Structure formats: structure tokens, C-alpha cells
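C-alpha cells incoming
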């Protein structure tokens, strides 16, 4: 699989029977995989479908799957409660007999509370199962589309990451050339300082050579540069890998920065220090972009 990002969006609409719905799947960066589902009441089983689907397609990121569903309004069965009408008629009969009230009309009786009873249509289990199956297909489709969206982000990230790795390599090569001049610079600086303090006394030249050599060994950055070259090769391997590499790239960025910090701390040349600072800035840019890789 190609390089994948961790942000994306997808929407799938569907319908079955009296139901219509829309599934929206969103993804943002995350160190681990976290899937959340929001759906309508009565379809709790779809949460497991959404979570299992996300775990099957993604390794990292915060995934949110939302299902909004609507059922078409249906006219339920209407029944006239004759017993209730008889009760109302019994209550007004004395008033009608005494001439104090007119006999009630049919529409007046039907408007009284409890006379008309509307029963909601009960959805059969088979019908609901068919709707859930269709909704499951929409959830799967939304997650698949989300995966494609994240792959599109990864395709856009690949040249950016590759360019930053190339710049790191260029800076390492520059640092290698500058570091070659460190022993001579250290010796010249130490010689000048010792001459100022001790003059041209006996044995001073031998001592200068000994001390300068010790200082040059402490300032040697060959190991750091070698490890940086190795990290560059590892980064390129991970960026071209078919497996999810974001977490390993995160760890690799820490190793990059550790070597760059040591390089700066050992630097005895202004130019090498400047290169080391540029190297740290580029690694930080690379680290920020790596946060988007699955």
C-alpha cells in the first residue's frame, strides 16, 4: 500500500424501505487508532460494524463515523373508541333531556380526547434487518472512501517528505566537509591561547600537540554524521514501504534530532554550528510532516 495520511473525509448516502440515511466518516491525526460511532436509536449493533471496519482498514488516527437516518412518516391504523363515545353521551344525556344542551355532532364527538386512537405501524424484524444490512454496506463504503481520501493525502505528502529528507542529506554532506577542518581549527585556537599564557617555554609545543589532539577527539563528530547517514537511509526505506510506517518515522525523528543536537554541541566552528542549526530546523519541519503519516 502507498503512503497514507491520517486526515480525510467521506460521505455515502443510502435508502431502504421507508428509511433514508447518510454516513459521514472523518479522520484526523492520532498517535493510535481510535474509532467512534454515532448513530440513530434502535441501531446499536451498527457501532460494532463501524469499529471493526475502521480497525480493519486503519492503523492510526482518530476516526469518527456518523450515521444520520430518517424514516418516512407513515399513517398508522385509526380506530374509533366506541366505549369512550358512549361514556361522553352518557354524561351529556341528562343535559340534553333537560333542554340545556344540543345533541353532539359526529365531528364534535370525534374531536374529543380518547375517541380516535392511532396505532403506530410496527416495523417487522425482517424489514429492520434488511435496513441494517443496507446501512452496514453504506458504512463500509464510507470507510473505504475515507481510506482513499487518506491515500490521496499520502500521495501529496510523499514529495514533501522526500524533499525534506534530501535537504537533510545535503546538510549532512555540508557538515562532513566542515567537520574535516575542526582538528586544525582547534589546534590553532589552543596554540594561540597557550602562547598567550605560557609564551615559548620548553616543552610547550609538545604539550600543545597533546592537548589539541585530546580536544579534537572530544569534538569529533564522525559518529554523529555516520548515524545521520544511516537514519537518512532508514527514512527513505520507511517512506517507500508498503506497511504503515508513521509510528516508526516518529521514533526515527527523535534519533535524527538527538544526533543533530550532539553535532551542534561538539561544533568548534561557526560554519559547522550554522549548518547544525539548519539541520535541526529541517528535521523539525520533517517531524511536523511525519505527524500526518499513518
Amino acid at each position: 500500500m502507498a503512503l497514507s495520511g491520517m486526515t480525510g473525509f467521506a460521505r455515502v448516502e443510502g435508502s431502504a424501505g421507508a428509511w433514508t440515511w447518510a454516513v459521514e466518516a472523518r479522520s484526523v491525526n492520532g498517535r493510535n487508532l481510535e474509532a467512534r460511532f454515532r448513530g440513530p436509536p434502535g441501531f446499536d449493533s451498527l457501532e460494532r460494524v463501524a469499529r471493526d471496519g475502521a480497525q480493519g482498514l486503519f492503523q492510526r488516527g482518530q476516526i469518527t463515523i456518523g450515521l444520520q437516518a430518517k424514516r418516512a412518516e407513515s399513517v398508522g391504523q385509526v380506530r374509533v373508541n366506541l366505549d369512550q363515545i358512549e361514556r361522553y353521551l352518557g354524561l351529556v344525556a341528562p343535559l340534553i333531556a333537560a333542554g340545556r344542551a344540543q345533541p353532539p355532532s359526529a365531528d364534535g364527538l370525534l374531536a374529543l380526547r380518547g375517541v380516535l386512537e392511532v396505532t403506530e405501524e410496527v416495523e417487522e424484524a425482517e424489514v429492520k434487518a434488511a435496513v441494517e444490512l443496507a446501512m452496514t454496506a453504506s458504512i463500509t463504503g464510507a470507510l473505504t472512501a475515507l481510506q482513499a481520501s487518506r491515500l490521496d493525502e499520502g500521495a501529496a505528502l510523499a514529495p514533501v517528505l522526500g524533499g525534506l529528507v534530501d535537504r537533510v542529506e545535503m546538510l549532512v554532506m555540508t557538515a562532513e566537509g566542515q567537520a574535516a577542518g575542526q582538528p586544525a581549527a582547534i589546534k590553532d585556537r589552543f596554540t594561540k591561547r597557550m602562547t598567550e599564557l605560557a609564551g615559548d617555554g620548553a616543552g610547550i609545543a609538545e604539550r600543545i600537540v597533546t592537548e589539541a589532539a585530546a580536544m579534537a577527539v572530544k569534538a569529533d563528530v564522525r559518529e554523529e554524521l555516520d548515524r545521520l547517514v544511516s537514519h537518512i537511509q532508514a527514512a527513505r526505506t520507511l517512506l517507500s514501504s508498503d506497511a504503515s510506517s508513521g509510528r516508526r518515522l516518529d521514533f526515527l525523528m527523535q534519533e535524527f534530532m538527538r544526533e543533530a543536537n550532539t553535532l551542534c554541541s561538539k561544533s568548534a566552528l561557526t560554519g559547522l554550528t550554522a549548518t547544525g542549526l539548519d539541520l535541526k530546523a529541517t528535521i523539525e519541519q520533517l517531524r511536523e510532516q511525519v505527524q500526518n503519516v499513518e
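note: The CA atoms of residues 5 and 156 lie 9 Å apart.
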